[in-house]
Amino acid sequence: MRFAIYYLVPSKKTCGVIYNEGVAVLSALIKAKGDEVSFFRLDLDDFKRGVNIDFNADVHAISFASQQFSLARRLLNILKMRAKGIVIAGGVHATVARESIIALDGVDAVVSGEGEPFINWLLANSEKPLSTCDIKNTHISGTGARPLERADYVDINKLPFPDRTIFDKSLLRRAPEFVLSRGCPFSCSYCVNEFYNREFGFKIRKKTPSYCIEEFDSTFSNIDIEQSKIITFHDDDFLTNIKWLEEFGDSYRKSFRNPFRCNASAVLVTEEKVRLLKEMNCEEVWVGIECGDENYRRNALKKNVSDKKIYRAFELLKKYGLRGVSFNIYGLPGETWSGIYKTVQINRKAKVYLASATAFIPFPGTSLYESVKADGTLKHFTEEEDNKGLNTPGVSNTLSKQECINAITLLNASVNLRNTLLYWFYIFYFRMPFIIKRELVGFIPILKKLDNPHAIDFDRSEKK
């Protein structure tokens, strides 16, 4: 059979989404059976220019997140008119909002959750009609409604190594990406893992250290390891299992010394784990703060992490010479400038190396999505806004679009400033009308001379 895989992404110009473990594994499964794969990584600009599609493929598989739903509808309309093969929809949106996909014309199968069971069935039963498919997490068009179910857990250590050849090798060479586990122990109200844990049950599966090392060897035989500045491990939380971390660390140190970065929850950061990370040549750890108001963080975001735990986590990272990068969300439901100041202040007090800020996006399937939908404040984005990915502001029901932009810029501008005068200047600067900011912007270079010359600059668009 001939497969065409379509991976829909936010703007390639502004978003760093390159690698996708799910589609890479599916491609590997298909090729392992001797079948062909054509791969298309598409954003809105591609559709405006005119997409290049393999209309003669036997199977068209589309993977996309909720923000690319509008692009998926475009692609489905094109395939419905001209494609010959069957059409399968999968990915995050097909999991958390599958009814919205089932309702569309031109979709033959909707896979919710892991796609390997259905692809294996399809490869083994290519002569049978789709209506005979009995995979639990797959809805077949025309077979009637069925409840959402989880397919049997996939043994990720029996899967072929992900097929990275389908991606742009020059992009992967800059920072190779790996996913060494599946599952997250937390169910934060803004994250789709809340949906997965609620509907499919919680279970973390990790690749064995030996499997990981073999995957690295396979990957770096095709990518020049010397040109790789840093490896990225995209596991939801890299520190969930200290026994695995010790075993993996031993194997990694013996075979590789490439620096890497990973994700970790503040509640799982301990001195023993940070020491292990240091010995493995970890250089950077991304930790979610999300919101500076501890009460809001615990109750509204369902992120049960205290300020004390956050400060301790970044203190340990700094102690062992690891860069601590924070994740933060602005424009959360009900958030005011008081909350924004708290987020800025906790980042400053934690002495983070870098603060990453994104606008709140209500993802379908999450508690916060249902909350803003129920109170009538759910906003729908245009295709252009969705194409910006997590940089789309304007969802907040208490802050304007410009205030959300100012909040993100404020965090990036002020979090690492040492000079108190400049810090408070920024605080007031971003609350001022543009006409006043235009007059005061000339004082910034003077004040910055008093501060750390390496401090992160504010948004240069303000100078225009």
UniProtKB/TrEMBL annotation:
UniProt entry keywords in alphabetical sequence: Iron, Iron-sulfur, Metal-binding, S-adenosyl-L-methionine
Cited PROSITE patterns: RADICAL_SAM
Positions in coiled-coil regions: none
UniProt GO molecular function: catalytic activity; cobalamin binding; iron-sulfur cluster binding; metal ion binding
Pfam families: B12-binding, Radical_SAM
Database matches in InterPro entries: Aldolase_TIM, BchE-like, Cobalamin-bd, Elp3/MiaA/NifB-like_rSAM, rSAM, rSAM_sf
Radical SAM core domain sequence ranges: 170-402
Cofactors required: [4Fe-4S] cluster
Protein name as annotated: Fe-S oxidoreductase
